[in-house]
């Protein structure tokens, strides 16, 4: 069953929606589906730009902490490959990509937003974080390269290294997102920005984007080819299992309360 919805308007703006509420948790299947979808949109001449958003109270809470710690070695390898391929595909996508962050953006959920060329967040209570260090997970190549490239050094230190959780206003102040708008106009604003950026000369845009991100894309490409990815050995160890269980216990009640308040 697909966890992504796709709608392409007559003006060539594609809207891709994560459709696994309430938390839109990620797994290998979702990331693989996302990579395949955006690879197809990249070569579709009718598509000029895209918006990525989500159903429910969360944009995405990242990996599913209930199932990820139990993955065997093959499952871990598939997930690392899917993270590098999925995020690598979006970060290299040759057309304008806008993120409409409707709610919680945690760990991989925030990486997904950082893949976009323009990011808009709803002005609503939410958690925004890169929680990997708190759950004992070391970053695969693609997520780390994207976060390091897209965050200012002070924001990278606070989010990547220290695992801080911030809100929408702080994300705007730290230039993690470009705009903060009322929830009711989030999608319309994102579509309008996609239309605006779609007016750029497409070949020049694609070339400039590729060259601007050349260093990161080179490292991500090597990881996608099976080179230079240290996570392909044992990735999720006992430290991760203990840390993720503690975080899951501490956060589940908070997230459920926030979700019910936003629904």
UniProtKB/TrEMBL annotation:
One annotated GO molecular function is:
lyase activity
A Gene Ontology biological process annotation? fatty acid beta-oxidation
Gene3D superfamilies, per this entry?
2-enoyl-CoA Hydratase, Chain A, domain 1
Q: What InterPro entries does the record point to?
A: ClpP/crotonase-like_dom_sf (IPR029045), Enoyl-CoA_hydra/iso (IPR001753)
Keywords tagged on the record: Lipid metabolism, Lyase
Record keyword Lyase present: yes
Against PANTHER family, the record matches this protein to: (7AS)-7A-METHYL-1,5-DIOXO-2,3,5,6,7,7A-HEXAHYDRO-1H-INDENE-CARBOXYL-COA HYDROLASE, ENOYL-COA HYDRATASE-RELATED
- Tell me the protein's name: Enoyl-CoA hydratase
Question: What is the organism of origin for this protein?
Answer: Reyranella soli
